[in-house]
Structure formats: C-alpha cells, structure tokens
C-alpha cells in the first residue's frame, strides 16, 4: 500500500508546489504592476507643475475651490461663510453637481464640491486657491454611517421601495440638487434605502418583532449594523481613507482615468499607501486653508481671518457690492428630497439665507457674528430633520451620547481601515497649529504696527510745522494772559460797570477763537490723519 501511494503523493506534492509557485509569481507580478502604477501616478502628481513654490499660498486667488470632504462640517462653512461672502452670481453654477459644470466656460469665483482634487485639472491652476476641512477619521466614518441611515430613513414614509424610488425620481427639480445627485450619497443612500426597506418587509412578514438591545449601531432588525456596513465593498471603495483619496484625487468619483487602478492597488496592498499619503500631505501644505472639524471655533476664526478678510477686501476694491440676488441662479443643496414639505422648508431656508446678504461694509468681526447666528439656525433645522427622519426607524436613534455604544474593537477596525486618514489627520493638525500661531502672531504684530505707525506719523512731521504749532500755542497763552491782565485792570478801574465788561469779554473770546482758526488753516496741520487705524 505504502509502495503504491508513494509516487502518487510525490506527484501531488510536485503539482502543489508548482501551483503554489504559479500563484505566488502571479501575485508578485500583480504586486509589481501595482507598485509601478502607484509610483507613476505619484511621480506625475508631485511634479513641479503641481506645486507653486514662488507664490504665497495664503493670498486669495481669483477662484476659491472648497474641496469639501463629506461629513466634516463643510456644510456650515458653505452656508454660513462662503454664501455670505460671495454673491450667487459669483458662485460656480451647481457647485456640488459636476455633471452640469464646466469651469472653463464660467467666470465664477467660488466652487464648493464633494468632487476630489482631480477637478483641478479643469481649473485655472495658477489662479485657484484651495481650502478643505479634515476630521478625525473615526468620527467621520461614524457620521457617514449615521447620515446614510438618516437620509435613507426619510423614504420610509412610502409604502414600498418602488414607490419611494419613483417618488425620488419625480421630485428632482431644476434648481434643487438633491443629496441623491451628489457623490458619495448617490451611492450610499439608495443602497441604505434598499436595505431599510428589505428589513422593514422582513419585520412585516415575521409579525411581532421584539427588539431587546437598544444599541442603534447593532440593531439588525431595524437597520444594517455598523460592523456589517464597514466591511461592505461599497464602504471599502467609498468611505475608508476617504479624505486621503479625495485630497489625492483618487476617489471612486475621480476624473483621472488611472485613479481607479491606483486606488484599487492601494486598497489591496497596504504598503503602497505611503506614496498616496505623501501626495495628500503635499497638497494640504499648498492649500490656502485647512480647517479641523474638532477645533471648530478656532477653525472658523482662522477661516474668517485668512480667507474671509481677503474676500471682504476684494469686495471693497472691486466695487461690485450689488446686493441684488438673482433667484434663478440660486441653487439649493437639499439634503434629500423624499417629500414635498421638506422641499418647501428648504426653499424658505434659502430665502432666510439671502436676507443678510453680503455687503461692502462687512468686517471680519461682523462676518463671525453672521456666521455664529447662521450656524445656530442651521444646526437647529438639521437637528429637527434628523429627529423627524430617525423616528421612522425607532427605537434606533443616533444622538450625541450613542457613539459611546460603539464597541472598542469596531473603533479599532475603523482606525485600521482608515490608516492613511489617521496619518493625514495628524498631519493636518500640525498644519493647523502652525497656521493658527502664524495668524495670531500676525494679528498681534499688526496691532503693534499701528502704534508704530502712529509714532512714525509724529516723527515724520516736519520740525518746522512742529515749531509753528508750539509758537501758536505760546501765542495763545500770551493772549489769554494779556486778556486776563486787561480784564483785571478794568475791574479795578471801573467796578460799577460790570454788565458792560461781560459783553466785552465775549467779544474778546470770539476774537481769540477766530485767531485759532486762521492759524490752523494757514499751517494745514493734518490733525485728523494722526488717528489713522
Ligand atoms: C407600492 O405602493 C404603491 C402605492 O401604494 C402601489 O400602488 C404599488 O402597487 C406598490 N407596489 C408593490 C410592488 O407592492
Ligand atoms: C463607485 O462606487 C459605486 C458603489 O460601490 C459603484 O457602483 C460605482 O461603479 C463606482 N464607480 C467607479 C468609477 O468605480
Ligand atoms: C464704484 O462704482 C461707482 C458706480 O458704479 C463709481 O461711480 C465709483 O467711482 C466706483 N468707485 C471706485 C473706487 O471704483
Ligand atoms: C417645515 O417647517 C415647519 C415650520 O418651520 C415645521 O412645522 C414643519 O414640521 C417642517 N416640515 C418638515 C417636513 O420638516
Ligand atoms: C452696513 O452699513 C449700513 C449703513 O451704515 C448698516 O445699516 C448695515 O447694518 C451695515 N451692515 C453691516 C453688515 O455691518
Ligand atoms: C432621538 O433622540 C433625540 C435627542 O435626544 C430626541 O429628541 C428624540 O425624541 C429621539 N427620537 C426618538 C424616536 O426617540
């Protein structure tokens, strides 16, 4: 038996090794191919043409490109800063909707979008300033999950998926961009919607469903659990390392033809991520503004001082403070569009936004005040919508407190799946600290400088004028003394005629006043200019 078996097993072993080596060499080939693809992309992406070292990145160019990474709080920047600073006419048409936008044809000044950095290939690179906001990847991923659920749940008002899908197709209007038209929601929401309907149908079939656990991230009867969501092909392609891919220009939505191969290679071989991370870091370096969702107040203040102040000064110098806002040009970015009343509510939001439209006399300080008021309003309406929407999947509910219910191993899983974003976020924090320090120093030095300026004004005043000023003062003093002397003498000589004396005194005083005026006019001393800010 053993003698018979031996050659067969030997043969099998040979085959097995052969097969293994074939597989291994295929894998090596593929890795080698990926390595090359990524390297080529990285080389072209960090060419000198990409960077402009001679230019001050902090000076605002003709076009401001807001690279809006989803779920970083960019919406409040868009509505409460950018829309207050720019006229509707200055905003690129249908910013968030790339299908309808051709930047070459438009002379617009503001472009806010979820499109990735590859859009730069269509923009006038030398005349474009880029800004973005980065968020802790764990918070960003959790927020993406919650928002997918929130928007999808709005459709549960419909009796079935067919009706919901048909309805959402019908309500797409001319001037309203629905969340469903915008990447990445156009993939994430319909997918989640389908899932919610399937689970609802399953519950209906089962009859009574008792939900014992109240952890909204793991409530299988109601919605796709978070850990399942994280490990889907869609999440791998769209959500994980989303910030890095978007800033590198490698998203699932990229305009660059090789982007998809590069991305897939990086997703497959983790150690190929490094060149992508490096490109993303260099891009952050060259951006005009990098905000942090977590440092909300400081970020807003940095924005107002770095970007806001320059837009405001442009408004003053270009002298086009036309307050007229064409309603046709206004495009509302709706967060969804599952029913009519929401659209109506959104429209009224637009109207209220436009009341406090941009004006020539806005300062950084008033901009911040307008912003604060606006975010309070925006957050309130967003909160209401969220509660109204999540009510349809009750008892699942996402609130500030519920994120503590996410198990530690899931948090670790998110960090591991978003390893590049974790690094990029660290780097963005470093940039932020530097920029923040720089701007605070600048602000201190400008206030110091104004004092110095004031001293210079005194110093530059010609000595001659100074002496004239002194001599005028001396002369006035002399006149006053003389007047006192004469007055006193008269009082002594004729004590009886007191009334008469008083009227003479008035004449005398008005004479000396006139004298002062003449002296001032003659010397033309710029007294007012001394109080320049
Ligand atoms: C879905 O709902 C609509 C509206 O109630 C109904 O007309 C349609 O027959 C339903 N479709 C299915 C497949 O149940
Ligand atoms: C982007 O991702 C979605 C969802 O996974 C997919 O349907 C779509 O085909 C992807 N697009 C590209 C260009 O890969
Ligand atoms: C601003 O525009 C008005 C009319 O449009 C013009 O009369 C005025 O001279 C302009 N001022 C500057 C500083 O360009
Ligand atoms: C629309 O807004 C009104 C008042 O602002 C509110 O009562 C109503 O519930 C809102 N509708 C929806 C669907 O959010
Ligand atoms: C601009 O000035 C006008 C008139 O002086 C004033 O009514 C308005 O409130 C000011 N706007 C801002 C934003 O300060
Ligand atoms: C969800 O939580 C919010 C905030 O705590 C609360 O206002 C709302 O009523 C909750 N929704 C449901 C359906 O319990």
From TrEMBL:
**UniProt key word Membrane:** yes
Q: Which domain of life is it from?
A: Eukaryota
Question: Which InterPro entries did the record assign?
Answer: Heparan_SO4-6-sulfoTrfase, P-loop_NTPase
Subcellular location, record wording: Membrane
Composition bias, Polar residues: 323-336
Keyword tags: Glycoprotein, Membrane, Signal, Transferase, Transmembrane, Transmembrane helix
What membrane topology does this protein have? Answer: Single-pass membrane protein
| Chief location | membrane
Q: What name does this protein carry?
A: Protein-tyrosine sulfotransferase
């Amino acid at each position: 038996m053993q003698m018979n078996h031996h050659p067969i097993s030997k043969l099998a072993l040979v085959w097995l090794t052969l097969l293994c080596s074939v597989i291994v060499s295929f894998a090596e080939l593929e890795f080698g191919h990926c390595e090359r693809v990524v390297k080529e992309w990285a080389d072209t992406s960090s060419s000198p043409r990409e960077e402009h070292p001679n230019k001050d990145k902090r000076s605002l160019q003709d076009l401001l490109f807001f690279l809006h990474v989803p779920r970083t709080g960019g919406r409040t920047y868009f509505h409460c800063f950018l829309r207050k600073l720019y006229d509707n006419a200055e905003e690129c048409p249908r910013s968030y909707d790339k299908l309808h936008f051709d930047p070459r044809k438009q002379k617009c000044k503001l472009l806010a979008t979820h499109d990735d950095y590859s859009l730069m290939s269509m923009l006038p690179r030398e005349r474009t300033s880029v800004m973005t906001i980065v968020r802790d990847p764990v918070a960003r991923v959790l927020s993406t999950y919650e928002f997918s659920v929130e928007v999808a749940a709005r459709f549960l008002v419909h009796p079935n998926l067919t009706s919901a899908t048909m309805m959402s197709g019908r309500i797409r209007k001319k001037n309203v961009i629905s969340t469903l038209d915008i990447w990445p929601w156009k993939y994430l929401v319909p997918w989640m919607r389908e899932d919610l309907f399937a689970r609802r149908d399953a519950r209906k079939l089962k009859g009574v469903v008792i939900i014992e656990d109240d952890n909204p991230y793991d409530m299988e009867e109601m919605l796709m659990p978070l850990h399942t969501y994280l490990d889907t092909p869609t999440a791998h392609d769209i959500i994980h390392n989303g910030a890095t891919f978007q800033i590198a220009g490698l998203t699932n939505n990229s305009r660059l033809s090789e982007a998809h191969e590069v991305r897939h290679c990086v997703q497959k071989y983790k150690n190929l991520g490094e060149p992508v991370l490096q490109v993303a870091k260099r891009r952050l370096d060259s951006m005009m503004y990098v905000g942090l969702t977590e440092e909300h107040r400081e970020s807003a203040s940095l924005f107002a001082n770095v970007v806001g102040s320059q837009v405001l000064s442009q408004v003053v110098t270009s002298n086009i403070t036309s307050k007229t806002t064409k309603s046709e040009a206004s495009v509302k970015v709706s967060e969804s569009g599952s029913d009519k009343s929401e659209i109506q509510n959104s429209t009224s939001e637009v109207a209220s936004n436009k009341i406090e439209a941009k004006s020539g006399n806005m300062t950084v300080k008033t901009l911040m005040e307008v912003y604060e008021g606006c975010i309070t309003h925006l957050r309130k309406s967003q909160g209401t919508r969220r509660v109204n929407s999540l009510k349809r999947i009750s008892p699942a509910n996402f609130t500030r407190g519920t994120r503590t219910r996410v198990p530690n191993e899931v948090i670790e899983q998110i960090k591991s799946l978003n390893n590049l974003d974790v690094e990029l976020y660290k780097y963005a924090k470093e940039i932020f600290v530097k920029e923040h320090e720089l701007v605070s120093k600048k602000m201190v030095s400008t206030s110091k400088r104004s004092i110095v300026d004031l001293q210079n004004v005194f110093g530059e005043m010609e000595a001659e004028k100074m002496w004239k000023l002194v001599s005028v003062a001396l002369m006035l003093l002399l006149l006053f003394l003389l007047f006192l002397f004469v007055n006193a003498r008269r009082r002594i000589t004729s004590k009886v005629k007191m009334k008469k004396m008083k009227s003479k005194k008035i004449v005398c005083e008005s004479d000396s006043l006139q004298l002062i005026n003449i002296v001032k006019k003659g010397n033309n001393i710029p007294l007012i200019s001394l109080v320049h800010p």
